[in-house]
Amino acid sequence: MKPFPCLPCFTTTKSNTKNKNHFTPIEQLCHRFSLAQLRAATNGFSPSLIVGGEGPCQVYKGHLKAQGPVAIKRFKTKSPAEEIEFRAEVRILCQLHHPNVVPLIGFCEHKKDRFIVYDYVSNGSLYNCLHGTNNNNNNVVPLSWKQRLHICIGVARGLHYIHFGTKIPVMHRAVKSSNILLDQNLEPKLADFGLCKKHPQEESRPKPPRVELRENLELSLEYIEPEYCITGRLSHKSDVYSFGVVMLEVLCRKEACFFTPGGDCVYLFKWAFDDERKGVLEKIVDPSLKGKIAPACWEVFFEMVQRCLASVEERPTMGEVELLLENALLLQETADAVAERENAPVLSVEKGVGATEQTWITLKGIGSDCVMAWFWMGEPVMQS
């Protein structure tokens, strides 16, 4: 199981809009728990209830009478600046309300100890669901392709919400499969436990003018856009890039950074886009999905991966990603329905003459008939 890092790392971008909650005490925005309440919820912070974390940061599964199962993060602040930062982040997190974002329940401050209380999400992380305990894929039942599409759509909705659906725009900055939690219905929820001590080689990196990166920020380099290594700047499009890596992870069922049998470290995006594999479904897809992805769906999905991993100015917004993924799911469901009715698994894609937004989908192998589906902005109309 991947460890939970230590602090939330949602970040707001600068805005001229006055937020009436900016100076509201956080006690008026979310519940402040006492240390005694959290002790009781975790049987005195019993080691047997630790579900994640490392070093001075621990995540406990607890139980509160009013809320039921909760996840409680415990860590220490080391300076007055970190104490101010903690309160600022709680203020942000408690105002995020979306089905695809893990809700913050409350917090606690006691001397140097800090606690954040979240809903407990029962099905673990997408990372564990894809890769299994200790990276042993045999320990988990592979997700179906449509389950994976639903998860990607949910994550896209959550990211679109924090980017554009809040009074103050928020960047996640730690989008990765271990920060995507799944509930009992496999509905994804964005979480972020993403700040630990940063890598020594990053100590001299200048702070960007528009994004305040903490001195202890640890980046998961396999998910970070290449531009950051040059500019030191992050933006909403950085989250889009990271999501593109997650989409590849979902498709290939390989970790974002994995080791070859020879011990070489390989980044997934480089592996998937080398000259031998780029765009060839059979060479990169999870073996459990072979023969189960409709070519039309694959075309849309892989194009979206490419766009997310493109240069900053060419990347889509998460709203665009969400819409196209929903269209990919529609294409898959249509192909599956026809194949189930008529035992016709073969599907090909043809673009209409002069067509841009629209696509003709030819579903073949249906006896003497040939069924055509005309898709316009994701709306299918079956024609004989």
Give descriptors for this structure:
384 residues; alpha+beta; Transferase(Phosphotransferase), domain 1; 2 domains; 6-stranded mixed beta sheet; 4-stranded antiparallel beta sheet; 16 strands; 31% helix; disordered C terminus; nucleotide-binding; ATP-binding; Prot_kinase_dom
Overall description:
The strands form five sheets. This protein has a six-stranded mixed sheet with strand order 2-6-7-5-4-3, with helices on both faces. It has a four-stranded antiparallel sheet with strand order 13-14-15-16, with helices on one face. Strands 1-8 form a two-stranded antiparallel ribbon. The longest helix is centred in the C-terminal third of the chain and has 25 residues, at about 320-340. The protein has ten helices and 16 strands. About 30% of the residues lie in helices and about 20% in strands. The chain has two domains: about 10-330, Transferase(Phosphotransferase) domain 1 (Transferase(Phosphotransferase), domain 1, Orthogonal Bundle); about 345-384. It has helices at about 35-40, 80-95, 125-130, 145-165, 225-230, 235-250, 270, 280-285, 295-310, 320-340, and strands spanning about 10, 30, 50-55, 55-65, 70-75, 105-110, 115-120, 170, 180, 190, 255-260, 265, 345-350, 360-365, 370-375, 380-384. A hairpin with a 3-residue loop joins strand 4 and strand 5 (about 70-75). It is an alpha+beta fold. The model is unreliable at about 1-10, about 15-20, about 195-215 and about 345-384 (pLDDT under 50).
**How far apart lie the N and C ends?**
51 Å
Poorly predicted regions are 1-8, 15-21, 193-217, 344-384
Share in helix: 25-40%
> How many strands?
16
Percent in strands: 15-25%
CATH architecture annotation name of the largest domain: Orthogonal Bundle
The CATH H-level superfamily of the largest domain is Transferase(Phosphotransferase) domain 1
What is the CATH class of the largest domain? Answer: Mainly Alpha
Q: Could you say how many structural domains there are in total?
A: 2
CATH topology descriptor of the largest domain: Transferase(Phosphotransferase), domain 1
H/E element order: EEHEEEHEEHHEEEHHEEHHHHEEEE
InterPro entries: ANXUR1/2-like, Kinase-like_dom_sf, Prot_kinase_dom, Ser-Thr/Tyr_kinase_cat_dom
Pfam families: PK_Tyr_Ser-Thr
GO molecular function, one term: ATP binding
EC number: 2.7.11.1
